[in-house]
Amino acid sequence: MSHISHNQASIRQSFGDTIYELGSIMPDLYVVSMDLRESMRLTRFANKFRSRFIECGVSENNAAGVAAGLAKAGKTVFLASFACFSPGVNWGTIRESICYNNANVKIVGGYAGLMAGVLGATHQMLEDISLVRALPNMEVFSPVDATETAKIVKAIARTKSPAYLRIVAPETPLVFPPHLSFTIGKSNVLKKGRDITIIGHGPILTSAFTINKPSLEIINCSSIKPLDEKTILASIKKTGRCIVIEDHQKNGGLGEAVASAILSSEVKCKFAHLAVDNHFGQSGKDYHQLYSHYHIGQKNLENAIKKIL
Length: 309
Fold this sequence. Notes:
Elements: E1 8-10, H1 11-25, E2 29-33, H2 43-48, E3 53-55, H3 60-72, E4 76-82, H4 91-99, E5 105-110, H5 128-133, E6 139-141, H6 146-157, E7 163-166, E8 171-173, E9 188-191, E10 196-200, E11 216-220, E12 223-225, H7 229-239, E13 241-249, H8 254-264, E14 270-276, H9 287-293, H10 298-308
Parallel strand pairs: 2-3, 2-4, 4-5, 5-7, 6-7, 10-11, 10-13, 13-14
Antiparallel strand pairs: 1-8, 6-12, 9-11
């Protein structure tokens, strides 16, 4: 059972710290950067493991090709940039060179979603999950907080398949219990309830923890692909109601994956999907204001709960 913490931590920093930690115990771990080492919190790794940090500059397709080549030479490679550039700009190279070859490259897309705030529409990547979900061989992950980020990075560093890790810019609340393990293809029920199943990925899911009534069952679906249909459908069978919330486009997001799983099963339920509906983002000092503007904020979730009841 989890609850929202008053403490906040940086998912970006957790990623950088974990990569640095893994660098000491995995001599074949390489990082390929696209001129964003400080933004992606990779400076410590770059300074200590100089021969294993490859700076490609602002050349996203080249960087994806370099990463694929290193992987084919037996290395475990983390390819790190903003999500709007990777997979946004280099999707074709990721498809051809990484996924088609089943290369051991972990693509890390930073500054994802409306949480990119003041950077505006060009950098608020809201289509990344749909892009990578469509690719054969690709696994897709979106951690709920900094604690889970470290666990996911360690888990995907041990696998051999292509993976995408979606991370956000600001510090966010801690909700993932430190003692809980992360398993690829598994979702965690962070709060048990009986009235409505709330499913989400990334820090936006923490808004559900502030709602006391009705009784919510909150599922952290950080493993978007492979998807834990068993846990999701068991919960919906119990509650009969499901709301999916995500900081992403409705098109191609987690909501569509969950809806498809529900329709393919014999489970009957009321269903709602809170996501950005076919719009680009815009600049905003406070991402909570953007969440309200795009109808995925706290009040929107509360209204969806009232409606589905």
